[in-house]
Amino acid sequence: MFFFFYVYNKGVPAMSAVEVKNLTFSYDGQTNAVEDVGFSVEKGTYCTIVGRNGSGKSTAAKLIAGLLDKKSGTILIDGIAMERENLLEIRRKIGIVFQNPDNQFIGSTVRDDIAFGLENHCVPQAEMDGIIEHFAAEVGMTSYLESEPSRLSGGQKQRVAIAGVLAMAPEILIFDEATSMLDPQGKDRIKQVIRTLHEDRSLTILSITHDIEEVSMSDQVVLLDKGKLVMSDTPEAVFSSEDRIRKTGLDIPFSMKLAKELKRYGVRLDETLRIEGAVEELCRLRSTK
After folding, report:
1. Which residues are registered as beta bridge partners of 46?
2. Quick one: pLDDT at residue 188?
3. For the chain, what are the domain ranges?
4. What integer is the mean pLDDT of 258-285?
5. What is the 3-state secondary structure (H, E, C) of 116-131?
6. Rounded to an integer, what distance in angstroms lies between the CA atom of residue 146 and that of residue 201?
7. Residue 184, pLDDT score
8. Is the Cβ–Cβ distance between 194 and 138 less than 8 Å?
9. Which residue has the higher pLDDT, 146 or 283?
10. What secondary structure letter does DSSP report for 142?
11. pTM of the model
């Protein structure tokens, strides 16, 4: 059986899965889409990269994935500097799920689509079936293995795309606005898949997103504006300055808005980033009365 193992030793000093230094890129050779950006993401971290449209977040993700060639700067993946000579080796460490899942479908069935990357890596057929079924189950798509991808909902298509990427055993998983085209139910399902992958596998996850609620459940936030790094820190630290957030065109989580509004009516609620925390705090306050 072809199994994959992900090791995360909390007693060992953390290593960077991704590190970028002075990263600069231009599409037209004149205006920089990403300019002098630098940040690092430790192994096993769930990192969200955020910013308004045109901030450079998707460009940064494509540079990290080796899909674009940097103008200048350094990209290190697992401590290895990305160069043309080792690009294929580094790409094997990275899986990417794009905004539109239809762009990633190859096979005529869900099973064939998940199998595509495995076939390219010459995985024996005897082992392939077990891998396909394992990752289909992991994203809740086992009963759709013989279905045509075109007949699936948007959320189901994204789950198939995730299963296909996971089957390749990446060390780093990039989601490039993977929920932006989905309805609320599909978004929630994909966010739950991402959360489960992070908690159960300790995968390093980079998610480019506009979803503030997703940002609030990540470990690290990289905030970009007009191609430049504003800050890289915890969600709590990033959202601590509402003025700075609003200047970059973003908003604060609903739970923080709720806390501020309740404060006007004399109800003191910790400004937790997650709505679940706000609900728990309200229940606690109610029970003490």
Report:
1. 205
2. 87
3. 12-93+171-186+197-250, 102-169, 253-289
4. 63
5. HHHHHCCCCHHHHHHH
6. 27
7. 86
8. no
9. 146
10. G
11. 0.82
